[in-house]
Amino acid sequence: MHTELKNLGFNEWFQDKNMALQIPGCRAARITGVNRDSYIVRNENSEVIAELTGSLLFSAESSMDLPSVGDWVSVKYHNENTFAVIHEVFPRKSFLRRKTPGKKIDYQLIASNIDVACIVQACDFDFNVRRLERYLVMINEGGIEPVILLTKSDLVSPEMMAKRISEIRNSNITSTIITLSNKTGFGQDQFSRMLEPGKTYCLIGSSGVGKTTLLNHLIGRDLLDTNTVRAQDGKGRHTTTRRQLIILDQGSMLIDTPGMRELGSIEVSGGMDGSFSDIKKLSQNCRFNNCTHTNETGCAILEAIENGEVTQERYNNYFKLLKESKHYQMSYIEKRKKDKKFGQMIKSVMKNNKKK
């Protein structure tokens, strides 16, 4: 199992961070799995179970401060290198995160230190350009390169496939698109050739679009379970229940993620600019600097909609995402203020109890 850390993604960027941390007795390892109360870490020689130090666990202000799949961490090995304790999490070069599902306003870290995120959409029931834009905002915000995989190409005609690709391109989405079929094998070799040794990729998308089947094909065996897909709506009963990093025989790494029903975002200005660069560029040509792009004369965006340069649907989705992001950001700021006040109160109570 011996390998070089650089083959696990430990490049010069992380080497510099390792020098800065300099924790005595600690070694660098990568998180390859996250369980409910433990982690799986891998170094040059082995993959073992690991736990957090108490100080790291209790000093974490949110789940974002805890390790995620893909993270590099400083660990101390025990019991003849069969068990590890995580002392520190390395700074992240890139990340994939979203708003926590449901009403709770907080971040959920999905995975980190990813080079390329592959958005998987089926060509039949699952295809949705507006949802694709949401994924792209999330990916661009985390500093990750996006690639689009259109699966189940065997279920649509060549004309329909061309229409799907045209819809994506007409929305000013320039990412690489690969069409494939897990049933016939079409496009799988093209995707395999895209994967570079030492780089980390992840598969994200709804349940039932073929992420796990594709991953099993790359692995060469059914490492992950899959279930059948309902014919009436294309929904899969299979879902990945936990995230894990898998090292392929050819040297690249893949992270499978659970199907995402909710894609809420918190403060994604950078991701919005990258995903809607056409609208951002047009806004610079508006007559007024404070243009709201809703009803002003001389608004370059509204003019672009009129002449067909920007679709009404893309414009609507842009403002929907922007409004949603700002709402969640305000709620998140209020939450952090309340959490900080609560933490200060606890510290004050503990300090007073010590004086008694």
- The ordered string of helix (H) and strand (E) elements is HEEEHEEEEEHEHEHEHEEHHHH
Distinct helical segment count:
10
Radius of gyration: 23 Å
Poorly predicted runs of 5 or more residues: 226-241
Structural class by SSE content? alpha/beta
Helical fraction equals 25-40%
In round numbers, the mean pLDDT is: 81
Proportion of residues in β-strands = 15-25%
Distance between the termini: 57 Å
Strands of the largest sheet, in order across it? 10-9-8-11-13-12
Shape: globular
Q: Please give the largest β-sheet.
A: 6 strands, mixed
**Extended strand count:** 13
Description of the molecule:
The chain is built from 10 helices and 13 strands. The protein is α/β, with parallel strands linked by helices and 356 residues long. Strands 10-9-8-11-13-12 form a 6-stranded mixed sheet, sandwiched between helices. Helix 7 crosses helix 8 (277-283). The chain is globular. It has helices at residues 12-21, 54-59, 129-141, 158-170, 188-194, 211-219, 269-275, 277-283, 300-306, 312-355, and strands at residues 27-34, 39-42, 47-52, 72-78, 83-89, 95-99, 107-112, 116-122, 145-151, 176-179, 200-205, 244-247, 253-256.
